[in-house]
Design a protein that fits this description.
The structure holds two protein chains of two kinds. Chain A has five helices and five strands. Chain A is α/β, with parallel strands linked by helices. Chain A has a five-stranded parallel sheet, sandwiched between helices. In chain A, helix 1 (about 10-25) links the parallel strand 1 (about 5) and strand 2 (about 25-30). In chain A, helix 1 (about 10-25) packs across helix 5 and helix 2 runs parallel beside helix 3 (about 60-70). Chain A starts with a strand and ends with a helix. The relative contact order of chain A is 0.19. By secondary structure, chain B is α+β, with helices and mostly antiparallel strands. In chain B, the strands form five sheets. Chain B has a six-stranded mixed sheet with strand order 15-19-20-18-17-16. The N and C termini of chain B lie far apart (about 80 Å). The chains are: A alpha/beta, B alpha+beta. The interface of A and B includes residues 56, 74, 75, 97 and 104 of A.
């Protein structure tokens, strides 16, 4: 199915997201921060990037901006995981070029539904 | 799709406890006043991760509590709140509360609600204080989850959607096709495309979107469901959603208000049934998940797992790869040998390769195998290695709390935190280390007044350092306090009957008396370092780890406690010796030197056993044969081999029959496989398959003393 890059500094969240998406038949690459994610993105291709916002080294907003600057990722769906339901925080992601967001806490079903929304 | 979330709990708890440690150590470095944004950010991030994870994995109380802490941190971060000492202390205490909440969640025990409520009150008070923002305790994440559903309306027969994307809608990775697909799942979809804004081909920008659509969606569909489809693009398009029902249609024709702007929340009169459904359902769901979280039996997950850096795993995989290559190389050599053997049996001389050639390859392969094995062993051992910062990170908080309790000024300097140590050793060294630090703060470093009177700086310094030396890890705890009062220690030791009045001890020997059982010189027994039951316990637990602890001290200048630990408990660097035809292993960590005895240096002290003059020092001689009850007819020890080992900080010579090589041995427990033997700490299997016992030199010494006292060994 799709190749998905999952970026989160929290190992448990990453495991949960990865496990859920793998269960739906997707291939998952995990990264603990924006820097690693960007390197993975450059060395491979992905159909979807799901990234946390608050992370050390490089946050999700910067990662989104950096990815959008890469020719291969101009139109790739990028979803941010955010705990803030406030419009302001969601918009920060959108302005950086994110496709959409998923508000934490979410359950596996919500995750799958959201992923389905952006996978072609 | 149902996924058992409890499988992620262990990882969640592990990283949450790590997060708490980060919060704690960063809070301790945070300066009052402006506050370093980087530090606050790090603390915020840790709290944020715990909140997010707790919400996801169903620990709502943890999530809500962290949310309040996070609010406070957020205000500090954006500068709208000063960093006060009270706030920092309060956050530190909140970290403790959070830790007990997480522990309760992990062990499935009751949380002390009163404690939590008290903490909430303090945090909320702080939040109320300077800024006007309300403490949003009730603004829990549960609300956020159900928030979307409140905005509900149902179209009854269906909806007309006018969707006019801005030209840059595609830029963020959104795609109208996918949105229509999502809409089609809601009801019967009919989309009409409007090409009118399409530019002439020559002016067309290929990445821009010039199309717009009018969509009719037929079915009993909630408006919120449609809005959700367009949720991410609400700012990138002009969108109107109009009910299909004839009445609404009529009104909309008249230009009245039932045209719904998605960007703004509810304007239509919601259909009653839908409201009922929408508002009743979410709380039910929420309570259900909470119930589930409570009811689910969680096993207390004592961290049976370790987190290993990917580089360490990669290294092992790499080594296994090399091992496979070596194996096939040896395999090939074996086959060639076989072929030669068959050829010579058949009387043919047409062997392809000479045996000498094959043997050369065989020995090369074996050498390579040896290297591979050793490297693989190192690599696997490294998996168990953790940086000592795991233990050191507890100390800043300890020093912070204790120095205020004792009204002392103390600066803690930590170095060598990256030094790696076996996980088991790490787990067992924490308490002794804490005890030594407490001891240094309580008995070592003086109060500011005393220090100033002694001409020292007001602030005392405690150095905590770790480094590798040979195959050992050395941990030093050094203070610039009062040092050990030798006269007092000596008097006390005599009083307690630990030494006799006539005993002539060196300074170091006197200092190390503080490790003797039941020894305490503190004038006032404080609740900080206890009643002097500690130091011997410290020593015993370090000895159990195969390590040693010694103290050096100078009166008025301070003390240094040095702990020497083996890198790992599973493997030991040993010296092979022979006694009575059997091979034994002496841990290299215990050995000072090995030498050949010179008759003239031996002294048989009257009434006591033999001693040997090693340079300027007389050291006791232990005859291993005598200790083991073997035939010990050798009277003249001249030219015998003696291994000088350290027992309780003092050198002791052990006479052995022969010295063999040094080698690494894998330690097998004697207790689990046989029973405890006083003189032995374990056993191992040597290269030739025989079992060799590993000496416990302390045990050897005590057996030697016993036999001496019983007259078994003649003086």
């Amino acid at each position: 199915m799709a190749r998905i890059l999952v970026v989160d500094d929290s190992a448990s969240m990453r495991q949960m997201v990865a496990f859920t998406l793998k269960g739906a038949g997707h291939e998952i690459v995990e990264a603990p921060d924006g820097v690693v994610a960007l390197a993975s993105a450059k060395s491979g291709s992905f159909d979807l990037v799901i990234t946390d916002v608050n992370m050390p080294n490089m946050d999700g907003i910067t990662l989104t901006r950096e990815l959008r600057a890469l020719p291969n990722y101009r139109f790739t769906p990028i979803l941010t995981l955010t705990t803030e339901s406030s419009a302001e925080k969601k918009m920060a992601g959108k302005q950086a070029g994110a496709t959409g967001w998923l508000v934490k806490p979410f359950n596996p079903d919500q995750l799958l539904a959201t992923a389905k929304k952006v996978l072609g | 799709m149902s996924i058992d979330m409890s499988q992620f709990h262990e990882a969640f708890f592990e990283e949450s406890f790590e997060g708490l440690e980060i919060m704690e150590s960063e809070l301790l470095t945070l300066d009052v006043g402006e506050g370093d944004v980087e530090i606050i950010n790090t603390i915020f991030r840790a709290a944020h991760s715990i909140k997010g994870g707790a919400g996801t994995f169903g620990f709502m109380n943890v999530s809500e509590f962290t949310h309040v802490m996070e609010t406070l941190l957020d205000e500090m971060r954006d500068g709208s709140r000063d960093v006060t000492q009270f706030a920092v202390d309060s956050l530190l205490e909140s970290v403790d509360v959070l830790r007990t909440m997480l522990e309760s969640a992990r062990d499935n025990t009751e949380v002390d609600e009163e404690m939590v409520a008290a903490r909430y009150a303090v945090l909320n008070d702080i939040l109320k204080e300077t800024t006007n923002s309300e403490a949003p305790v009730e603004d829990s994440t549960v609300d956020a989850q159900s928030g979307v559903v409140d905005v509900a309306s149902v179209g009854g027969e269906g909806w007309t959607i006018s969707f006019q994307p801005h030209t840059d809608l595609l830029m963020a990775g959104n795609d109208p096709v996918r949105m229509f697909r999502a809409l089609a799942e809601l009801g019967e979809l009919n989309a009409e495309v409007d090409f009118s804004s399409l530019l002439p081909f020559s002016e067309l920008a290929p990445e821009d979107l010039y199309l717009s659509w009018t969509v009719t969606l037929v079915g009993d569909i909630a408006q919120a469901d449609i809005e959700e489809v367009f949720e991410w693009v609400e700012d990138d398009c002009d969108l109107t959603i109009t009910p299909l029902s004839s009445e609404a249609e009529k009104e909309s024709l008249e230009g009245a208000d039932p045209v719904l702007e998605v960007a703004e929340p509810i304007q239509t009169a919601p259909v009653k049934s839908a409201v009922k459904e929408a508002t009743v359902e979410p709380p039910a769901k929420a309570t259900e998940t909470i119930k589930k979280a409570v009811a689910k039996p969680k096993k207390p997950a004592e961290s049976a797992s370790i987190r290993v850096g990917i580089d360490k795993v990669d290294e092992i995989i790499n080594l296994v790869g090399e091992l496979v290559i070596t194996q096939s190389m040896l395999d090939q050599a074996g086959e060639d040998l076989e072929a030669n053997a068959e050829a010579s049996a058949a009387g043919s001389d047409e062997t392809q390769k000479t045996n000498a050639d094959i043997l050369l390859r065989l020995s090369k392969g074996l050498a390579q195998l040896e290297r591979n094995t050793r490297e693989l062993q190192d690599g696997v051992m490294r998996i168990r290695m953790l940086p000592i910062s795991f233990v050191f990170s507890r100390m800043p908080r300890l020093v912070h709390d204790l120095s205020s309790k004792l009204s002392k000024k103390i600066e803690l300097i930590v170095s060598g935190e990256e030094t790696e140590l076996d996980k088991t050793v790490m787990e067992n060294i924490g308490d002794p280390l804490v005890h030594l630090v407490r001891n240094a703060l309580d008995h070592g470093i003086e109060t500011p007044e005393v220090r100033l009177a002694a001409g020292k700086e007001e602030t005392g310094t405690l150095n905590l350092n770790a480094y590798h030396q040979g195959g050992n890890v050395i941990i030093e705890i050094k203070d610039d306090g009062a040092g050990i009062n030798k006269a007092k220690v000596r008097a006390k030791a005599i009083e307690k009957g630990i030494i006799s009045n006539e005993d002539n001890l060196t300074d170091d020997e006197i200092n190390n008396l503080i490790f003797a059982p039941g020894f305490s010189t503190a004038e006032v027994v404080s609740d900080v370092s206890g009643r002097g039951v500690g130091m011997d316990v410290v020593k015993t637990s370090i000895n159990k780890l195969g390590g040693r602890v010694v103290v050096k001290s100078e009166e008025g200048k301070g003390s240094v406690f040095t702990i020497r630990l083996p890198l790992t408990l599973a493997i030991l660097d040993g010296q092979l010796v022979t006694v009575g035809g059997e091979s034994y292993v002496i841990p290299l960590i215990a050995i000072i030197e090995s030498l050949q005895i010179d008759r003239t240096q031996i002294n048989a002290v009257a009434g006591k056993a033999e001693v040997y003059k090693l340079r300027d020092e007389y050291i006791p001689i232990i005859r291993a044969r005598a200790v083991f009850g073997l035939d010990d007819s050798v009277t003249d020890l001249h030219d015998s081999l003696m291994v000088v080992v350290e027992v309780d900080g003092a050198p002791v010579g052990i006479i052995v029959d022969d010295l063999q090589g040094q080698q690494q041995v894998v330690i097998k427990s004697l207790e689990t496989n046989y029973r405890k033997v006083e003189t032995m700490s374990g056993a191992t299997i040597l290269g030739d398959g025989t079992v060799a016992l590993i000496w416990d030199v302390n045990g050897m010494m005590s057996v030697h003393k016993k036999k001496l006292n019983n007259g078994v060994i003649k003086a």
